[in-house]
Specification:
Blueprint (H helix, E strand, L loop, with lengths): L6 E4 L4 E4 L8 E8 L9 E5 L1 E8 L3 E7 L14 E5 L8 E9 L4 E8 L7 E6 L5 E6 L2 E7 L9 E8 L2 E6 L2 E8 L8 E6 L11 E12 L6 E9 L2 E8 L6 E6 L3 E6 L5 E6 L7 E6 L2 E9 L4
Parallel strand pairs: 1-11
Antiparallel strand pairs: 1-10, 2-15, 3-17, 4-7, 5-6, 6-17, 7-16, 8-13, 8-17, 9-10, 9-16, 11-12, 13-14, 14-15, 18-19, 19-22, 20-21, 20-23, 23-24
Protein backbone atom coordinates (compact mmCIF):
# COMPACT_ATOMS: atom_id res chain seq x y z
CA UNK A 1 0.00 0.00 0.00
CA UNK A 2 1.32 3.47 -0.91
CA UNK A 3 1.83 5.72 2.07
CA UNK A 4 2.55 9.42 2.13
CA UNK A 5 4.43 11.41 4.76
CA UNK A 6 7.60 13.23 5.55
CA UNK A 7 10.98 11.84 6.57
CA UNK A 8 13.53 14.25 7.99
CA UNK A 9 17.12 13.41 8.82
CA UNK A 10 18.80 16.09 10.83
CA UNK A 11 22.23 16.48 12.34
CA UNK A 12 25.10 18.91 12.65
CA UNK A 13 26.32 18.08 9.19
CA UNK A 14 25.92 18.95 5.54
CA UNK A 15 24.49 16.00 3.63
CA UNK A 16 24.65 15.55 -0.09
CA UNK A 17 23.59 13.03 -2.68
CA UNK A 18 20.75 10.58 -2.85
CA UNK A 19 21.50 7.26 -4.53
CA UNK A 20 19.93 3.85 -4.54
CA UNK A 21 20.06 2.15 -1.15
CA UNK A 22 22.85 -0.43 -1.08
CA UNK A 23 23.75 -2.86 1.71
CA UNK A 24 26.41 -1.70 4.12
CA UNK A 25 28.76 -3.94 6.09
CA UNK A 26 27.55 -7.30 7.39
CA UNK A 27 26.02 -7.26 10.85
CA UNK A 28 28.11 -8.55 13.75
CA UNK A 29 25.99 -8.84 16.90
CA UNK A 30 23.14 -7.31 18.87
CA UNK A 31 24.24 -4.37 21.04
CA UNK A 32 20.80 -3.66 22.52
CA UNK A 33 17.30 -5.11 22.27
CA UNK A 34 14.08 -4.20 24.08
CA UNK A 35 10.57 -5.46 23.30
CA UNK A 36 9.30 -4.01 26.63
CA UNK A 37 7.79 -7.35 27.69
CA UNK A 38 9.71 -7.05 30.98
CA UNK A 39 7.68 -3.96 31.85
CA UNK A 40 10.87 -2.14 32.90
CA UNK A 41 12.30 1.12 31.53
CA UNK A 42 15.58 0.81 33.45
CA UNK A 43 17.73 0.74 30.25
CA UNK A 44 16.34 4.14 29.21
CA UNK A 45 17.11 7.73 30.18
CA UNK A 46 13.86 9.71 30.23
CA UNK A 47 14.39 13.47 30.02
CA UNK A 48 11.01 14.96 29.15
CA UNK A 49 7.47 13.70 28.73
CA UNK A 50 5.55 10.83 30.29
CA UNK A 51 6.94 7.39 29.42
CA UNK A 52 5.44 4.05 30.44
CA UNK A 53 5.04 0.44 29.33
CA UNK A 54 1.60 -0.09 27.80
CA UNK A 55 -0.18 -3.42 27.29
CA UNK A 56 -1.09 -3.22 23.61
CA UNK A 57 -2.01 -6.87 23.26
CA UNK A 58 -1.98 -9.02 20.15
CA UNK A 59 1.29 -9.54 18.27
CA UNK A 60 2.91 -6.47 19.84
CA UNK A 61 2.20 -7.36 23.47
CA UNK A 62 3.71 -4.70 25.71
CA UNK A 63 4.99 -1.53 24.04
CA UNK A 64 6.57 1.77 25.01
CA UNK A 65 4.07 4.63 25.34
CA UNK A 66 5.40 8.17 25.09
CA UNK A 67 3.27 11.23 25.83
CA UNK A 68 4.65 14.70 25.27
CA UNK A 69 4.32 17.37 27.90
CA UNK A 70 1.78 20.02 27.08
CA UNK A 71 4.26 22.82 27.83
CA UNK A 72 7.42 22.08 25.82
CA UNK A 73 10.83 22.24 27.44
CA UNK A 74 13.94 23.31 25.58
CA UNK A 75 17.15 21.30 25.82
CA UNK A 76 18.88 21.36 22.43
CA UNK A 77 17.53 24.65 21.04
CA UNK A 78 14.38 22.93 19.89
CA UNK A 79 10.97 22.32 21.39
CA UNK A 80 10.73 18.62 22.05
CA UNK A 81 8.13 17.78 24.70
CA UNK A 82 9.37 14.22 25.17
CA UNK A 83 12.87 12.72 24.94
CA UNK A 84 14.01 9.17 25.77
CA UNK A 85 17.27 7.44 24.82
CA UNK A 86 19.11 4.19 25.56
CA UNK A 87 21.44 4.87 28.49
CA UNK A 88 24.23 2.42 27.70
CA UNK A 89 24.88 3.30 24.06
CA UNK A 90 27.05 6.42 24.23
CA UNK A 91 30.06 4.50 22.89
CA UNK A 92 28.27 3.14 19.80
CA UNK A 93 29.55 4.43 16.46
CA UNK A 94 28.53 2.29 13.46
CA UNK A 95 25.31 0.34 13.77
CA UNK A 96 21.84 -0.59 12.56
CA UNK A 97 18.96 0.95 14.56
CA UNK A 98 15.53 -0.67 14.12
CA UNK A 99 12.17 -0.10 15.78
CA UNK A 100 8.39 -0.27 15.30
CA UNK A 101 6.41 2.94 15.71
CA UNK A 102 2.82 4.18 15.54
CA UNK A 103 1.42 7.72 15.66
CA UNK A 104 -2.08 8.50 16.90
CA UNK A 105 -2.83 11.82 15.24
CA UNK A 106 -1.89 13.89 12.22
CA UNK A 107 1.60 14.97 13.09
CA UNK A 108 4.96 13.18 13.04
CA UNK A 109 7.31 10.73 14.73
CA UNK A 110 10.99 11.20 15.42
CA UNK A 111 13.98 9.03 16.27
CA UNK A 112 17.55 10.11 17.06
CA UNK A 113 20.94 8.46 16.70
CA UNK A 114 24.59 9.18 17.52
CA UNK A 115 23.47 10.99 20.66
CA UNK A 116 26.39 11.49 23.07
CA UNK A 117 24.99 14.44 25.01
CA UNK A 118 21.53 15.94 24.48
CA UNK A 119 23.02 19.40 23.88
CA UNK A 120 25.54 18.21 21.29
CA UNK A 121 24.79 17.58 17.64
CA UNK A 122 23.11 14.35 16.69
CA UNK A 123 21.07 12.98 13.80
CA UNK A 124 17.29 13.12 13.79
CA UNK A 125 14.97 11.14 11.54
CA UNK A 126 11.58 12.81 11.48
CA UNK A 127 8.61 11.35 9.58
CA UNK A 128 5.80 13.90 9.23
CA UNK A 129 2.36 12.68 8.26
CA UNK A 130 0.66 15.97 7.46
CA UNK A 131 3.33 17.31 5.07
CA UNK A 132 3.54 14.27 2.77
CA UNK A 133 7.23 14.78 2.03
CA UNK A 134 10.72 13.62 3.01
CA UNK A 135 13.06 16.30 4.33
CA UNK A 136 16.78 15.94 4.79
CA UNK A 137 17.97 18.66 7.15
CA UNK A 138 20.86 19.97 9.20
CA UNK A 139 19.92 20.10 12.87
CA UNK A 140 22.01 22.97 14.15
CA UNK A 141 20.74 25.17 12.83
CA UNK A 142 17.95 23.25 11.14
CA UNK A 143 18.32 23.74 7.39
CA UNK A 144 16.56 21.58 4.86
CA UNK A 145 18.95 20.06 2.34
CA UNK A 146 16.66 17.78 0.37
CA UNK A 147 12.99 16.76 0.20
CA UNK A 148 11.21 13.70 -1.14
CA UNK A 149 7.64 12.40 -0.92
CA UNK A 150 7.01 9.50 1.48
CA UNK A 151 3.44 9.31 2.86
CA UNK A 152 2.53 7.57 6.11
CA UNK A 153 -0.80 7.13 7.91
CA UNK A 154 -1.97 7.54 11.48
CA UNK A 155 -2.93 4.50 13.59
CA UNK A 156 -0.61 2.27 11.56
CA UNK A 157 2.47 0.39 12.74
CA UNK A 158 5.70 0.96 10.76
CA UNK A 159 9.06 -0.78 10.97
CA UNK A 160 11.96 1.65 10.54
CA UNK A 161 15.58 0.64 9.90
CA UNK A 162 18.40 3.19 10.09
CA UNK A 163 21.98 2.21 9.21
CA UNK A 164 24.84 4.55 10.08
CA UNK A 165 28.43 3.73 9.15
CA UNK A 166 30.91 6.58 9.24
CA UNK A 167 29.41 9.25 6.98
CA UNK A 168 27.08 6.79 5.20
CA UNK A 169 23.42 6.72 6.33
CA UNK A 170 20.55 4.70 4.91
CA UNK A 171 16.90 4.52 5.94
CA UNK A 172 14.23 1.93 5.11
CA UNK A 173 10.56 1.91 6.15
CA UNK A 174 8.74 -1.44 6.03
CA UNK A 175 11.57 -2.66 3.82
CA UNK A 176 11.16 0.17 1.30
CA UNK A 177 14.33 2.22 0.60
CA UNK A 178 13.77 5.84 1.58
CA UNK A 179 17.24 7.29 1.01
CA UNK A 180 20.94 6.59 0.92
CA UNK A 181 23.14 9.55 1.81
CA UNK A 182 26.84 10.25 2.25
CA UNK A 183 27.49 13.13 4.67
CA UNK A 184 30.20 15.62 3.68
CA UNK A 185 30.73 16.88 7.25
CA UNK A 186 29.52 14.07 9.49
CA UNK A 187 28.87 13.87 13.21
CA UNK A 188 31.93 11.79 14.04
CA UNK A 189 31.44 11.19 17.75
CA UNK A 190 29.79 7.93 18.86
CA UNK A 191 26.37 8.02 20.42
CA UNK A 192 23.23 6.20 21.44
CA UNK A 193 19.70 6.02 20.00
CA UNK A 194 16.30 7.19 21.17
CA UNK A 195 13.06 9.02 20.46
CA UNK A 196 11.78 12.59 20.52
CA UNK A 197 8.15 13.72 20.72
CA UNK A 198 7.46 17.14 19.24
CA UNK A 199 4.56 19.22 20.62
CA UNK A 200 1.60 20.04 18.40
CA UNK A 201 2.22 23.72 17.73
CA UNK A 202 -1.18 24.02 16.05
CA UNK A 203 -3.01 23.44 19.34
CA UNK A 204 -1.04 25.43 21.92
CA UNK A 205 1.73 22.86 22.13
CA UNK A 206 -0.47 20.14 23.55
CA UNK A 207 1.12 16.81 24.36
CA UNK A 208 0.85 13.93 21.88
CA UNK A 209 0.96 10.15 22.26
CA UNK A 210 3.26 7.82 20.25
CA UNK A 211 3.84 4.06 20.65
CA UNK A 212 7.14 2.19 20.10
CA UNK A 213 8.17 -1.46 20.14
CA UNK A 214 10.92 -3.93 19.20
CA UNK A 215 13.87 -1.54 19.54
CA UNK A 216 17.07 -3.19 18.34
CA UNK A 217 20.63 -1.96 17.75
CA UNK A 218 23.05 -4.21 15.85
CA UNK A 219 26.76 -3.56 15.35
CA UNK A 220 28.15 -3.43 11.83
CA UNK A 221 30.66 -5.96 10.56
CA UNK A 222 34.33 -5.30 10.08
CA UNK A 223 36.71 -5.38 13.02
CA UNK A 224 38.34 -2.02 12.42
CA UNK A 225 35.03 -0.33 11.56
CA UNK A 226 33.64 -1.54 14.90
CA UNK A 227 36.45 0.00 16.98
CA UNK A 228 35.58 3.45 18.31
CA UNK A 229 38.86 4.53 19.89
CA UNK A 230 42.11 3.42 21.56
CA UNK A 231 43.60 4.85 24.73
CA UNK A 232 47.04 4.16 26.22
CA UNK A 233 49.06 5.36 29.24
CA UNK A 234 52.23 4.48 31.11
CA UNK A 235 52.85 4.46 34.85
CA UNK A 236 55.88 3.01 36.66
CA UNK A 237 57.13 1.32 33.49
CA UNK A 238 53.76 -0.34 32.87
CA UNK A 239 51.83 0.46 29.69
CA UNK A 240 48.10 -0.18 29.65
CA UNK A 241 45.91 0.15 26.55
CA UNK A 242 42.12 0.07 26.28
CA UNK A 243 40.12 -0.30 23.06
CA UNK A 244 36.48 0.75 23.07
CA UNK A 245 34.46 -1.14 20.48
CA UNK A 246 31.09 -2.22 19.12
CA UNK A 247 32.37 -5.78 18.79
CA UNK A 248 30.60 -8.80 20.25
CA UNK A 249 31.49 -9.95 23.73
CA UNK A 250 34.32 -12.49 23.57
CA UNK A 251 35.84 -11.20 20.31
CA UNK A 252 39.65 -11.36 20.36
CA UNK A 253 41.82 -8.31 19.61
CA UNK A 254 45.60 -8.25 19.30
CA UNK A 255 47.49 -5.14 20.42
CA UNK A 256 51.21 -4.66 19.80
CA UNK A 257 53.69 -2.48 21.67
CA UNK A 258 56.48 -0.93 19.58
CA UNK A 259 56.01 -3.55 16.85
CA UNK A 260 57.54 -6.19 19.12
CA UNK A 261 55.37 -7.42 22.00
CA UNK A 262 51.82 -8.53 21.18
CA UNK A 263 49.09 -9.07 23.76
CA UNK A 264 45.62 -10.51 23.15
CA UNK A 265 42.44 -9.55 24.96
CA UNK A 266 38.77 -10.47 24.70
CA UNK A 267 36.05 -7.83 24.39
CA UNK A 268 33.86 -7.59 27.47
CA UNK A 269 30.12 -6.99 27.61
CA UNK A 270 30.68 -3.22 27.81
CA UNK A 271 32.65 -3.30 24.54
CA UNK A 272 36.06 -2.68 26.18
CA UNK A 273 39.23 -4.70 25.63
CA UNK A 274 42.26 -4.02 27.89
CA UNK A 275 45.89 -5.22 27.84
CA UNK A 276 49.10 -4.35 29.73
CA UNK A 277 52.87 -4.58 29.27
CA UNK A 278 55.23 -4.54 32.29
CA UNK A 279 58.89 -3.56 32.51
CA UNK A 280 58.76 -1.10 29.63
CA UNK A 281 61.97 0.76 28.66
CA UNK A 282 62.02 4.35 29.90
CA UNK A 283 63.04 7.58 28.14
CA UNK A 284 61.71 6.64 24.73
CA UNK A 285 58.41 6.73 22.88
CA UNK A 286 56.41 3.54 22.56
CA UNK A 287 53.72 2.99 19.94
CA UNK A 288 50.63 0.94 20.76
CA UNK A 289 48.76 -0.45 17.75
CA UNK A 290 45.70 -2.57 17.15
CA UNK A 291 46.79 -5.22 14.66
CA UNK A 292 45.41 -4.81 11.13
CA UNK A 293 43.83 -1.45 12.03
CA UNK A 294 46.35 1.14 10.93
CA UNK A 295 44.28 4.15 11.94
CA UNK A 296 44.41 3.14 15.62
CA UNK A 297 47.75 3.85 17.30
CA UNK A 298 48.84 5.77 20.38
CA UNK A 299 52.28 7.06 21.38
CA UNK A 300 53.24 6.91 25.07
CA UNK A 301 56.46 7.58 27.00
CA UNK A 302 57.42 5.95 30.28
CA UNK A 303 59.64 7.22 33.07
CA UNK A 304 60.68 5.78 36.43
CA UNK A 305 58.06 7.61 38.47
Amino acid sequence: MLRTSCVIVLGCAVMTGLIAVTPLAAQECVLFEDDFESGSLDPWTLLHGKWSVHDWGGEYGKVLRGEGEGKPKCDVKCYQSGFAYVTEGKGWMNYVFEYDIRITDQWDFTSVFRVSKPKKGFYVLNMIEYRDRTDLSDFCPQERVLSEDYPIEIDTWYHVKVTVEGRHITVEVDGDPVFDVVVDDPIEHPGTVGFIIWPDFRERCRGRVIFYDNVKVTSLGGRCESINNLGAKCKTRRVTATARTNLCEGTELSLTLSDVITRTCRVKGNGKCKVAWKGVTTERDHIVRIDDCDRFKRIVRCDDR
